[in-house]
Target: Deoxyuridine 5'-triphosphate nucleotidohydrolase
Amino acid sequence: MTIKIINKSQHALPEYETIASAGMDLRANITDPITLNPLERALVKTGLFIELPIGYEAQVRPRSGLAFKKGITVLNSPGTVDADYRGEIGVILVNLSNEPFVIENGERVAQLVIAKHERAEWELVETLSETVRGEGGFGSTGVK
Model:
């Protein structure tokens, strides 16, 4: 698949790190470092603009290393970039740790996964088919 991209950042295009990687790292494209204090959030620009084919989305997801080691995650995870969006890709980061975190220019702040999706049509009905699970949710199937 080929996706049109404009790169207004000073960084290389996102790329897959291995043959089996699902996501490509997104880098901060900022002029000054951003300090995220505990529980603060910020919109971090990437300098990237894309044109996806209809039927695809780009999902902005957290980087596991930042989440585990630093408590930094993507707030609306996954964030969706729709096929008709032409603005700059931004990453909403939040600091869930107890310590300030400084985002530097070029830092890998999130990953981008390209995913196919379907469009649904609703069929209004009076009843739904029954299953063993039924209405059970939110942990109803047990702990293990």
Residues 41 and 94 are 4 Å apart (CA to CA). The chain has a mean pLDDT of 95. The chain is about 5% helix and 35% strand. The domain at 4-116 is CATH 2.70.40.10 (Deoxyuridine 5'-Triphosphate Nucleotidohydrolase; Chain A).
